[in-house]
Design brief:
- This protein is mainly alpha-helical and 103 residues long.
- A two-stranded antiparallel ribbon has the order 1-2.
- The two termini are 27 Å apart.
- 0% of the residues are buried.
- It is built from three helices and two strands, in the order ααββα.
- The protein is extended.
Length: 103
């Protein structure tokens, strides 16, 4: 049911004109990737309820290896997380060999 909800959108119905103008301004001034992830993407995402659940530039060392271990750990520019207690127990169990909680 949650998957059926619409996500962030630049549609005029979901993204009012003043917000779009701000988006265009920030996009035009963003010269580096850090500016895009810091200013442009948050405008598209909308207001975040909990700023502690949004981060980036952290090496993901608690993930199971997808290869023989020869690849470096991922370090995403931006990610959103959830406390383990908010995740469905069955899903946590099924993914336990691939994702190791860090809290």
């Amino acid at each position: 049911q949650r998957m059926l909800r619409y996500g962030a959108s630049l549609s005029p119905l979901r993204f009012p004109d003043p917000n779009f103008k701000e988006f265009k301004r920030e996009h035009a001034h963003a010269k580096q990737e850090a500016q895009v992830t810091g200013y442009v993407i948050p405008l598209i995402e909308g207001e975040t309820r909990d700023g502690n659940c949004r981060s980036g530039q952290i090496r993901f060392t608690n993930l199971a290896h997808l290869t023989d271990g020869s690849l470096a750990s991922g370090s995403p520019d931006l990610f959103h997380d959830s406390p383990p207690r908010q995740l469905n127990r069955m899903v946590r169990g099924e993914l336990s060999s691939q994702i190791m909680p860090s809290t």
